[in-house]
């Protein structure tokens, strides 16, 4: 068993998932993969099972009853990873917006360089986003700046979803107390890691928007992030935030 696990939430990713898993297994470093599928009607889980036939000891599938939200999918994956005693746990999208080759760079930042959280950052060296309209780039970049300003975190890409955690981070954070399920989940995890005084590294990556499948972004997810950040910050000032 690899000591590194990549957690990939899926909902209707039939066009991407098999190719993504095989690309990860082609890397020079060994990673295990846990796919957390929210009962995708397009057969995503069946595609994962197909790859599992070739990699029976490295591909794992957690099937859920329905579309329960990104945050809860990752939390389920994190708990599974801790139970299986993985040392390094990754978040990664299923749509190739995150380059599988960058998994090694995130891993090295934690395993070799001693950081507790490594973030695949779109904004630490300028703006590295491909195939997004300017309006979405500005919204995402502005959201990260807003979060950075409100929380005081020295993190340029506060909403990034491409991350490596050392297991000690996930053991420290009370996963049952994570409040947000959408876009704000990524911010909450970074904020609690920051409040816990863990060492955080931003690794520059190029983010490429999906070419297949549909985006899961919505206005409700964005509003959760905007108002959730203020709530988190206020609670932290009064030491009432649950870590």
Descriptive overview:
This protein has 243 residues and is of the alpha/beta class. It has a single domain, classed as Spore Coat Polysaccharide Biosynthesis Protein SpsA, Chain A (Alpha-Beta Complex), CATH 3.90.550.10. Helix content is 41%, strand content 16%. It contains eight helices and nine strands. The strands form two sheets. The protein has a seven-stranded mixed β-sheet with strand order 3-2-1-4-7-5-8, with helices on both faces. A two-stranded parallel sheet has the order 6-9. Strand 1, helix 1 and strand 2 form a beta-alpha-beta unit. Helix 1 runs parallel beside helix 2. It starts with a strand and ends in a 6-residue tail after the last helix.
Key descriptive features of the protein:
alpha/beta, seven-stranded mixed beta sheet, 9 strands
Work out the number of β strands. Answer: 9
Reported for the largest beta sheet, the result is:
7 strands, mixed
CATH architecture: Alpha-Beta Complex
Q: Span from first to last CA?
A: 30 Å
Number of domains: 1
Strand order of the largest sheet: 3-2-1-4-7-5-8
Number of helices: 8
CATH superfamily: Spore Coat Polysaccharide Biosynthesis Protein SpsA, Chain A
**Uncertain regions: pLDDT < 50 for 5+ in a row?**
none
Q: From N to C, what is the helix and strand string?
A: EHEHEHEHEEHEHHEEH
Beta content comes to 15-25%
What name does the CATH topology carry? Answer: Spore Coat Polysaccharide Biosynthesis Protein SpsA, Chain A
Under CATH at level 1, the class stands as Alpha Beta
Output the radius of gyration. Answer: 17 Å
Shape: globular
User: Helical proportion?
Assistant: 40-55%
**How does the helix and strand content classify structurally?**
alpha/beta
Average of the residue pLDDT scores: 92
GO molecular function, one term: dolichyl-phosphate beta-D-mannosyltransferase activity
Family: Belongs to the glycosyltransferase 2 family.
Keywords: Glycosyltransferase, Transferase
Protein name: Dolichol-phosphate mannosyltransferase
